[in-house]
């Protein structure tokens, strides 16, 4: 479906894009890998894969390896030195997949130069006539591209999406998100689907939003059906026939409560030290914003994993006992980046 859609062009001259809206567990990563491999075999050796976390690079490598495309190397954009990606000091990378996070695109070298930003590096590597694959994985993260009400514009991702639109007309754009077509306001970045704009009933995205929201949820369902009918959207779901669910409440042990309280005190102390450091160096506003952004991101990850850790012992107890070795117990990780975790275990996970 994606390859067929990519052979069509919108009235404004842009190549039509494709939206993968598969639910969790279906395998969006392998589908993306298949699209990249198909284009690689057809001579389009360069692809770009955007996602939300650098850890997902390992999942991208696994997906390519699983479909038999282990010869396609995946390179992290933030690992390159500033300058031409195809230059010798960057390993002369001239083909493969460049993997980048949305936030990495704002990276900028303090020393200057022609390719002092990550975005300029990437645009140069792709070339003026780039017609390879550009993947926007977990693309709902750009939902604030056209902010409404109290929501603030996501400037970094807005810059990325519109830069790709301005600089390229011919790339094969793939959007991937489990919640892609569920909220019409979050579709502002999907301009390559041709739902609004030149040659459509809706001149601007705002016109499309007004028409859909006036008619409620049913209108969005009709939009999704029309997208599927026109071959630009696929949304598969895992079957849950015969599946039962049970919520098991985990009682916190005194040891865990004590550890949690100590962790809170540690982070309070860390915040005070960070504030003192920022005051001492008289950091500029941009540096403060970056520093506190990384601080609270690490803070959120820490407590998320601490909460997950409190449940591990109970999860193991719920698994099959030694007398039931014929049973298979499946544990579903609560976060992305499972390939990196599995690799770190050295193959001991069974």
From TrEMBL:
Domain Strawberry notch AAA: 1-262
Domain of life: Eukaryota
GO cellular component annotations of the record: nucleus
Compartments (UniProt record): Nucleus
GO BP annotations listed: positive regulation of signal transduction; regulation of DNA-templated transcription
Keywords, in A-Z order: Coiled coil, Nucleus
The keyword Translocase is annotated on this UniProt entry: no
A molecular function GO annotation: chromatin DNA binding
Keyword Coiled coil carried by entry: yes
Family named by the database record: Belongs to the SBNO family.
Protein name from the UniProt record: Protein strawberry notch homolog 1
UniProt source species: Gekko hokouensis
Gene from which the chain derives: SBNO1
